[in-house]
Amino acid sequence: MIDPKIIREHIDVLEKALAQRQAAFDTAKLREIDEKRRSLIVETEKLKNEKNVLSNEIAKLKKSGADASGQIEYQRSLGQRIEACARDLRAAEEEWEQLALVIPNIPDSSVPVGTSDEDNAVVKTWGEKPAFDFAPKAHWDLGEDLDILDPKRAVKITGSRFALYKSQGAMLERALINFMLDLHVREHGYTEVLPPFMVNRTSMTGTGQLPKFEEELFHLDGVDYFLIPTAEVPVTNIHADEILKEDELPIKYVSYTPCFRKEAGAHGKDTRGLTRLHQFNKVELVKFAHPDNSFDELEGLTLDAEDVLKRLNIHYRVSALCTGDLGFSSAKTYDIEVWLPGQEIYREISSCSCFTDFQARRAKIRFRRQGGKTELVHTLNGSGLAIGRTVMAVMENYQDADGTINVPEALKPYMHGLDRITRL
RNA sequence: GGAGAGGUGACCGAGUAGGCCGAAGGUGCUCGCCUGCUAAGCGAGUGUACGGUGAAAGCUGUACCCAGGGUUCAAAUCCCUGCCUCUCCGCCA
């Protein structure tokens, strides 16, 4: 949620942000409800004050044995007026909240202005596309030839957009999870957490998935829980409703979880291989940062994620998303896109964002500044990295002409010394 | 799942014949004093949210004693529901 003060005092800032994001939103309506809401607050509180004062009088009268029936009678009518007023207030507040919760975050001034992913700005490239003296294959072909991916049986077990890894394929996935966790814990200073894979509605609202994107989420039958679409949700909510100490910031967590997404609206898109699944694994980086340096922390977090690909020695580039492509809660996002020679495309493998105080306001994550004032922290997160897509990248970049796959040097300790994936 | 107990401020812990309780007391923390170090001692302060007012400091109102309802002129205190915690039993990886 954005700062309500912006709605009152700098509506132009919000309107500009909405326009840049190409988001349609009725700001006039929001202002109108905000004013109505506040005048109702004043009115009900005035009545309540009157009631409280009178209550004390009644208590005193009763104590001294005097008659208070007149006051009690008046008190009764006051109660009815308060109730009516409070009802209006509740309605106004609900209406206000419904609107406020679907306003996206305001992009940082450094974010390039644009309308679609074509306007994203490549800010960095690392490494080079590998040269092959044969035609490199896509990972889905390699996977089936090596018998390490079995998409047909995955469909049988569940349905489309699920994967079944086998043998050295499953081991590669597991190796990457451990490799990434170790890297971020031991060299980048993150604390490992393993959170619940289901969360309640409050947590989903805290990070911004709800109320706007419910159709993207798997909801459980019988309890009001959702499968997490990313570890961002449970991990960011670790500190929901808390007041942190200024000197413990930034707090850095790394977490492996599976992620569950409906991928509604992606019908027929990326149907082959590991690209777009209803369930995939991811190692996620989450930071709770001081507002004074949160954008520096974003640079650092992105570098931490990039480091995975550097260690694996795989070519990638980094783009700053433009205003039109920015996610709902984000103020600034870098996408890391990995090169996939078998498909001859760059594919997003990590998305690193600074949410400023947008999530913190919803989830009530604060800290106490030197001098005593509480203030909202800034939250950040990024994939470090998506595991399935990293498997793809390893397979396609490390393939040989005979269809086998070299194991990257950095992964060998995690593959028990195996240096080549072959058909068993 | 069955039976019982309970959920009060950063923490511990008073507060049940309803009003004077945002809440005693203690610990912790902050600031000041004192003590040749350390410990102790003395004094003051120390919740959050949303409003009003103000340039600001501040002043002020309302709400919050797990959450949501209810009874009452009035609820931390009474009633109902939910959630959570603990103990015992059952079941189970």
Features:
single chain; 424 residues; alpha+beta; BirA Bifunctional Protein, domain 2; 2 domains; three-stranded mixed beta sheet; RNA-binding
Summarize the main sheet: 8 strands, mixed
The CATH class of the largest domain, by name, is: Alpha Beta
- SSE order in H/E notation? HHHHEHHHEEHEHEEEHEEEHEEEHEE
Roughly what fraction of the amino acids lie in strands? 15-25%
Fraction of helical residues: 25-40%
Rg from alpha-carbon coordinates: 27 Å
Per the principal axes of the C-alpha atoms, what is the gross shape?
Answer: elongated
Distance between the termini: 53 Å
CATH superfamily descriptor of the largest domain: Bira Bifunctional Protein, Domain 2
Query: Would you report the number of β strands?
Result: 15
- How much is the average pLDDT? 93
Main structural class: alpha+beta
Q: Specify the CATH architecture of the largest domain.
A: 2-Layer Sandwich
State the domain count: 2
Low-confidence stretches: none
Order the strands across the largest sheet as they lie in space: 1-8-9-10-13-7-6-2
What is the third-level CATH name, the topology of the largest domain?
BirA Bifunctional Protein, domain 2
Number of helices: 12
Q: Would you give an account of this structure?
A:
- It is elongated and about 100 Å long.
- It has 12 helices and 15 strands.
- It has 2 domains: 26-100; 117-421, 2-Layer Sandwich (BirA Bifunctional Protein, domain 2).
- An 8-stranded mixed beta sheet has the order 1-8-9-10-13-7-6-2. Strands 5-11-12 form a 3-stranded mixed beta sheet.
- The relative contact order is 0.14.
- The protein has 424 residues and is of the alpha+beta class.
- A hairpin with a 5-residue loop joins strand 11 (365-368) and strand 12.
- The longest helix has 37 residues, at 27-63.
- It has helices spanning 4-9, 11-21, 27-63, 69-100, 139-146, 151-157, 168-187, 201-207, 232-236, 294-312, 358-363, 387-397; strands spanning 121-126, 191-193, 198-200, 225-227, 242-245, 251-260, 279-289, 316-320, 332-340, 345-354, 365-368, 374-376, 378-386, 405-406, 420-421.
- Helix 3 (27-63) packs antiparallel against helix 4, helix 5 (139-146) crosses helix 12 and helix 7 crosses helix 12.
